[in-house]
Design brief:
Length: 267
């Protein structure tokens, strides 16, 4: 199993905005697109993909199952609905969006249903999102660690999640970083700005390069074509040991996303 290291996210983008963003990304060379049932934009993402002319085999589409659909009798039908909206016969990766502890459906049932959806050919790979160590262990117990392609979690220079990422590395589970720019807060950081200036790069490129060098996949979003193009250049930015050490020192548990009732007890 493999996860593309660089993709485009679509969180909070809807309507023509997400169509334009995905269309621009595909024109610029992005081939991995991340969406979710709860984003309410799968149909628009599907439209942009269909209009792009890019071959389906060249794309990597990710969606996420929403909490309403975690029961065994709902998961696969909901995923088929997502496929209809995305105008495809399969997605490359399907994630459980949030652990949602106490929502009335046991995690074992949800993970087993997700594995069954894979067996049906609805998704090529499966994984989890926003899971802590304890819940990741439960997911592993349900389907096996080799079946879990990634844990997509909030990560930024301000929230480095070292305990969880170390555990995932031990298990051979890829880390996908979302909110890598901390809702844009890192763009004003003087330490990152100094590193960016030394490399003749942007702060966003530095933050993304930091995540990439740690072995994480990234899925930054943007509504601006120039930012989408600029972000891609992070792949060519090599930070040195001093840069990485200075970024490591920025950690302050700066979590941006922590929805009550959905989030676990964070490590």
């Amino acid at each position: 199993m493999s996860i593309p290291s660089f993709g485009v996210g679509t969180f909070r983008l809807t309507g023509q905005t997400v169509i334009d963003s995905v269309s621009n990304a595909l024109e610029l060379g992005y081939r991995a697109i991340d969406t979710a049932q709860i984003y309410g934009n799968e149909a628009e993402v599907g439209q942009a993909v269909a209009q792009s002319g890019v071959k389906r085999a060249d794309l990597f589409l990710t969606t996420k199952i929403w909490t309403d659909n975690y029961a065994r009798d709902k998961l696969a039908p909901s995923l088929r609905g997502s496929l209809d909206k995305l105008r495809t016969d399969y997605v490359d990766l399907t994630l459980i969006h949030w652990p949602a502890p106490g929502n009335g459906v046991e995690l074992h049932e949800t993970m087993t249903a997700l594995a069954e959806a894979r067996a049906l050919g609805l998704t090529r790979q499966i994984g989890i999102s926003n899971f802590n160590i304890a819940l990741t262990k439960e997911a592993i117990a349900a389907v096996g660690k080799d079946q879990i392609a990634t844990n997509q979690i909030e990560l930024s220079p301000y929230l480095q999640n070292r305990k969880l990422t170390a555990f995932l590395k031990e298990q051979g589970i890829t880390v996908t970083s979302y909110m890598t720019l901390a809702y844009g807060k890192v763009l004003k950081d003087p330490v990152l700005a100094a590193i960016a200036a030394r490399h003749h790069a942007t702060v966003a490129q530095v933050a993304l390069a930091w995540a990439l060098q740690l072995g994480y996949a990234v899925i930054p979003s943007s509504t601006r074509r120039e930012n989408l193009a600029s972000n891609l250049l992070a792949r060519d930015l090599a930070l040195d040991a001093d840069d990485m050490a200075r970024i490591a020192a920025l950690e302050h548990n700066g979590r941006e996303v922590d929805p009550q009732g959905l989030a676990p007890e964070w490590d």
